[in-house]
Amino acid sequence: MSQSSGRDADLAAARLLLERMGISLDELTAGTATDRALPTFAEYVPVVAAAVSPGTRKAYSSYWKRVVEHWGDRRLNEPTPTEIEALRGRIQAGVVARRNGRGGRSAAEHLVAALRCLYRRAEADGLIHESQNPARKVAKPRRLPSTRRAVGDARLAEINAVAASSGDDPILDCLLLRLHTETACRRGGALALRPRDLDPDLSLIYLREKGGTTRWQPVSPTLMRHMLAHHSERGDGDANGSLLRYRDGRPLTYRRYDHLWHRIGSRLSWVRTQQISTHWLRHTTLTWVERNYGHAVARAFAGHTDGGNSGSTASYVKASLDEVAIAVTGLTGETHPLIKAG
């Protein structure tokens, strides 16, 4: 074999090795200069936090704070997958034990997700290569099935009775419970409602929920009347402002939900014991819709997208807005305007 052919074979082998390692020629020649240019976690976390959506920032900010506490002075390429696993274990072990706790699995899952988000941004910014991302090599704990389930009619009536007969603003609390029961919306969707999101002619509300999802959701004429009256009594005239407000006009926050369920739990022991919350109302409504109108209508009612593990058939058998309105009619006993128009 000639010297040139042997050199060509060596170069081909070297290129194959670099390709398998996921290292480009630029990265190889950059050497340690690239490493020195990498920011520390204390420097990079604020950059990422400012770039992500408010929902992502709310979900991950406490975990990014923990990362900065442990690794603030370290550069992004320094922690190994083993070190990330060790940090995951420490955070999981340090979770405060609660009645509905599950051994800190959620905290461990969120830590890994927060680091993956951070490192994905670093990849996109050209700070590291995909092969240098240690968070990709760390598994998240398998999520356990939810303990939430549908609340029976009698129990739901008890919840509404307590809300209507206690507290400093029972009218507001009853409006919240009816809104979530009729629409199966999340708390964030309710708090994001604006007066301009109400269509009283067709009895529709425009929901903006997590992940940037939006949808028009049918509601009963009775609920629409109460929401309009609420805005008339407590609104400031700004169509783009918050719809749901306290008596003094302040926009509602998540704190109202916490107070509401704490009060109901203090009067109904089973609510306190089982940690019933607003999300249980979503389970209740969607379970009823699925049993009576099928899976496709329940998916549309919930505002679920076509992603996930629902299968390719879900993209073909979407339920229409009219079908959701039919389900609302069955749920509330009030004929929806869309049905009359149809």
From TrEMBL:
Tyr recombinase domain mapped to chain residues: 143-329
Name of this chain's protein: Tyr recombinase domain-containing protein
Family: Belongs to the 'phage' integrase family.
Gene3D superfamilies with a match to the protein in the record: 1.10.150.130, Intergrase catalytic core
Native species: Asanoa siamensis
SUPFAM superfamilies: DNA breaking-rejoining enzymes
Lipid biosynthesis found in the keyword field: no
InterPro entries on file: DNA_brk_join_enz, Integrase-like_cat_sf, Integrase_catalytic, Integrase_recombinase_N, Tyrosine_recombinase_XerCD
